Amino acid sequence: MLFVTPLLKNVAYPALSSFGYFRSWRTRQANPLTVLTYHGVFPQGYVPRSRLLDGNLISAKRLHRQLNLLKRHYNVICPEEFLRFLDEGIQLPPRAVLLTCDDGLANVVSGMLPVLESLQLKCIFFLTGASFTDHPEILWHEELWLLLEAAQPGPLGFQHLAASLENIPGAAHDRHRIWWELVKQLSKTNASVRRHFIEELGSAAKLCDGWNTALLQDPIQRSRFQLLDKQQAEKLVKSGMTVGAHTMDHPVLAQCTEEITREEIARPLKLAPADWNLRMLAYPFGTPETVSGRDVSLAEAAGYRCAFMNVGGSVPSSVDRFVVPRIHITANMNFGEFEAHASGFHQDLQNRLSRSASPTQSQAVLSQS
Ligand SMILES: [Zn+2]
Hints:
Elements: H1 4-18, H2 21-27, E1 33-38, H3 51-54, H4 60-73, E2 75-76, H5 79-88, E3 96-103, H6 107-119, E4 124-127, H7 130-133, H8 140-150, E5 154-158, E6 165-168, H9 172-186, H10 191-204, H11 211-215, H12 219-225, H13 230-238, E7 242-245, H14 258-271, E8 280-282, H15 293-302, E9 306-312, E10 324-328, H16 335-342, H17 345-356, H18 359-366
Parallel strand pairs: 1-3, 1-10, 2-3, 3-4, 4-7, 8-9, 9-10
Antiparallel strand pairs: 5-6
This protein binds zinc ion (ZN).
Residues 102-103, 246, 250, 284 line the site of zinc ion (ZN).
């Protein structure tokens, strides 16, 4: 079974895509829609640092090729059609796809918007508080990753009220494990404590003063890591794109106190200019582990019309509008694999395998697809 993974990825999916199998499969499915999640594009000249940090972004060229396929063989619907599907139950065209993009990195205006405009497609951009308050910064969890990557491995003995860190591990997978533990721990605090923690940790790890702001002096790094400011976000709106909220500071909501979660979810509605017409939310991280039932109830109570997860496959007609599933597009997908995911086929296969095989077997088949 282990051999099936590269076989699916490199042989079966590209062949099925080139024969047009996925689009005809999609036409026969009862679930009327798939929603894709992007995270922006690599600025020209940017060299990806690691799969863990950069695995969500793709090149503008690849984005163009993927969206061109959707435009030719699927029906990319606009956000208004999606809301009417939720509110009025309108029938969607066959092979309907909705495009979304999370985080609001600066490169979505410079790199992604021109691709969308050239193909005349619409997308929902989910922005964080930085883009509502005009304080452009780096996503704190990416900054934390950059810090752990830049620090020398070895003992540290760092103590902070929010979390402690005994040592910086050398192996990438250990750093990733520690990073995720810290992300969860720091999500229990508030935004200013998180910033303070990162600053203190940078000093303890002997990174030079301003290591993080220096990164933003470089235009390529700035386009990769800096969040959109309000003016740049305006460009999305003026270009006919839709903007939604991605909370204020992108914490793991399930780890936050109820009071902080309420504020994280509701505040963008108060801060966004009226003409942005903010109505939709995407939960940060968007997995069942990171979003609790309480967070879903708070999204509804805040007044959003719907909210998106980042996993779950295709969208049924009877979807819970506050737990809308999406399909996450990543850098490691080849072209055929992209269509296997975008059509919902891959998730459907995963569901079938997990029902018929042991978890280990199905994981072996699909883990790298
Ligand atoms: Zn995000």
